[in-house]
Every structure is written in C-alpha cells, then in structure tokens.
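hiii, so i know i said id send this last week but things got crazy w the move. better late than never?? heres the sequnce for the chain we talked about at the cafe, plus the structure i predicted for it. fair warning i was half asleep when i ran it
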Amino acid sequence: MSLAHRYDFALLFDVIDGNPNGDPDAGNLPRLDVETGLGLVTDVCLKRKVRNYVGLVKSEQPPYEIYVKERAVLNKQHERAYEGIGALDALAGDDKKRKGGAHVDDARQWMCRNFFDVRTFGAVMSTGVNCGQVRGPVQLTFGRSVDPIVAQEHSITRMAVATEAEAEKQGGDNRTMGRKHTVPYGLYVAHGFVSSFLAKQSGFSEDDLELLWQALGQMFEHDRSAARGQMSTRGLYVFKHESELGNAPAHSLFDRLQVARKPEVAIARRFDDYTVHFDGRTLDAGEIVCAGPGVELIRRC
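okay and structure toks below
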C-alpha cells in the first residue's frame, strides 16, 4: 500500500567512548563543525546503518536487496535489471549507444521493486548500463551534537607484529603501537523527511516505512565495533501529517522539540544528563499527542 501522508521525524542517538563517524580527511578524527565545536555524523553514515540492518534482517532477498553495499559492483546490478525485464538485447546495437533506449523506465522500476535502498533513498543508476535515476522519498540530514564534543586521542598497544622483520627489529618484544580517537560522550540529533509523492514514484510502501522505523530504532544494536564504542538510539519522534502536502512546516515542528543539558550538569556523560521535551513535556515511548491541526506526534522509541 502506497503512502497517503507526509512524515517528518527527529532521531536522537548518542555515543559513549567511541568515534561515531570518523573523518578520513582529518586522520579519522570524529567529525565536527570547526566553528562551533559541535559533532557531526553524516547522512551517508546513518543511511549505511539502515542499509546494513535491512540487509541483515531480510537476508538480502528481493524485495529487500541492498544496492549500495560493501564490495558491490553497481553496473552488474544494472545488467541484472535488463535481464530481469527480458531486454538484454537492448544492450547491443544502436540501443547500446542510448544505454538501454526505451527500456530505461522498465529497468528503473525493476530496480525499485528489488532494492530497498533504491526505493527508499533513491539512486543515480545511469553509469554503465542505464537504469535511470530515482528520487528517494526518505531523506536525512547530518546528525549534529547538542553540545560541543571533545575528541580524545589514546595510545593503544597490540602485543603482536605483522612480520618477522618487525620482530627482529624489536628483539622479540613484538609490540605494535597505534592511536585511537574517541568522544567521551555526545548526544546527536538528526532530522528526516518522508514524501508520499516520491514514495508513489519509487514504490516505497507502508511496510517499507515500518521497516525504516524499526531500522532507525535498532540499527546501532547490530553495528557494534571497538572503534564506535557504545552507540544507541535514544528517541525517534515521528510527526505524521494528515495530508500529503503537510499541515505544518517541518522546521516549526522540530523547533518545538527541545533537547537540552540539565542546568545542574556541567559536563554531560550520559543521556540522563539531558532533557527532551515537546512543548514543555516529556513523552513516553509509544505516546501519541496532537502537534497542531492535522499533525500528530508519536514517540516510537
């Protein structure tokens, strides 16, 4: 069933003694806004975790295959689409110059039917064999920390070396020194948007939407690593509009969701050091409130 409502949502997540999203251009230091010191987590990073969760729970089977994944060769997936619609002959002769010719729309629909992330986040699939482009109905912003973060650097030791030559140089001590960057604590907020109009174009359904909410709530539970420390979803606040166009601007709804460090806390080190209020009140998980004419808010987790 296709979507009949617009949705806006706020995702709260935190990190304890970990690096939520390293910057490869800065020695893998935690990303931050250099002017404010606020921590950043890119939308691409968050989408990666959603993709990984869906691939895990759905076993990478259609219609829940993942298009952008580790070691994927995207052009090979495009060729699968033409094989799936029975149009491999379109990849030869004059049609090859047009990269699919009149079959591009059918190939794009095949990709949407089979790949969850294509119909959710969209994709540019015109490289190699042309499967067109899809504007994704679900979009995310960067996650931004509520308070400035402090990136700490730690020396770490591995009680082993990689080669015999290294062992000989150390006289059998066999130690490898390294560095590790962590954020002691950071609470981040990211915003997201779901368009019912684009959902109709890509085939994104109510079942897909429910899977997205599930992924956002549980994705960190299945993405553990020594580098990322302890990461958790702390809140998913979903605004459901009565109409497809929406009944209130997204920014006006987000502004009413206030996340702030408690006045008596000098340095935050846990989620309980913050308050999360909507119009001055705390919402329980699963609670639904009226957020204005034609808009309801549910705290899903």
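btw The chain is about 25% helix and 30% strand. thought thatd interest u
miss u guys!!
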